[in-house]
Structures are given as structure tokens and as C-alpha cells.
Amino acid sequence: MTTYKAIKVAGVAPAERVAVFGIGGLGHLAVQYARIVGGLVTAIDVTEEKLELARALGADDVINASEVDPVDALLSTGGADVAVVLATSSKVFEQAYRSLRRGGRMVCVGLPKDGVFPVPIFDLVLGGKSVLGSIVGTREDLREVFALHAAGRTRVITETRSLEDVRGSMAEVLAGTVPARIVFEF
């Protein structure tokens, strides 16, 4: 529901370029929700496996930020109308903002580790850009998410683990090596 709400907050229109920064538990769903509303999706991550997952879920384009500057790559095609930030790195927030085209909207879902994201005010105002925050969602959003999933419009990618694997699984999440979601069996 978290990324569903972010796509709603962004007001994504058909054929708008949506850049999803961070493909994982939230990002793999953001790719799907942006596609459902007609967005042209570019997935950005630093691991090829997550980018392949994004491709499999319908991303129109992918950018490996460990190999290519995502700002240059996005701006070379006109920039992003919407940048959804799901990572926790301040550098990624800065990259997402700089990748916006005139009038673009940045939706902050992830929280930078240092708690700061400096916004260049002249560029914000003169470029007509917006920086938006989005958190979780409402009961209605949850109902809509369940309806989309029940209709087969989305796939939640999970790996099942035993409860004894909690510590190791948390280490994987913190290291960013989990493809999407971990589900624990009780």
C-alpha cells in the first residue's frame, strides 16, 4: 500500500516518465502501480538482479546506478516527470531530484539515513518542481491494493523463511540483498 499511495500522491498521468529509485520490497510494487496508471517506468538500482526483476514486472527501462550516472541517463531522455525515492541514501535523494524535468514531482517515501535532503530552492521555484512526502495510505487505498492484487494486476515477490532465520534475514535486508519481501513461517 505504501508505494500505491506514493503513485497516487504523485498524480501520475498516462505516458509520464516515472523513475523508481530503489527496487526491492517497495520498489518492485511501485514499478507495477506506475504501469497500471499508464506511466512509462524506469527502474534504478545498483544490483542487476533487482533490475531484472523490475524488467520482469514491466519496467520499460532500467538503469544500473553502479555503472551509469542515473541523472545523466534520465536527463538524456528528457528527464523524469515523477521520481519515487524508496532508498535511504541522501545521494539517491539528490539524484532523484536532479533527474526531474521542468515541472517534475519527486515523491519521498524512503527516509535518508542522515535525516537531511537539501533542496536547491532556485531550481525548485524556477523549474516549477515539487517535492512531496508520502506515507503508508488509507483504508480505501488498502481496499484498492487488495482489489488490484485479487484481479491479478500485481505480483508480490516473496521469499519464505523460518522464524529462526530472523537475524540472518535482517542482515540481508540491511545489506540490500533481499530481492523483494521476506515472509516468515510461524
TrEMBL record:
Q: Does the keyword Phosphoprotein apply?
A: no
What cofactor does its activity depend on? Zn(2+)
What's the protein called, per UniProt? Answer: alcohol dehydrogenase
Protein EC: 1.1.1.1
PANTHER family, per this entry?
A: ALCOHOL DEHYDROGENASE 1-RELATED, VACUOLAR PROTEIN SORTING-ASSOCIATED PROTEIN 11
Q: Which Pfam families match?
A: ADH_zinc_N (PF00107)
| Major enzyme class | oxidoreductase
Please report the organism this UniProt entry assigns to the protein: Agrococcus citreus
Q: Supply the alphabetized keyword list.
A: Metal-binding, Oxidoreductase, Zinc
Origin: domain of life? Bacteria
Domain Alcohol dehydrogenase-like C-terminal positions: 25-148
Say if the entry is tagged with keyword Metal-binding: yes
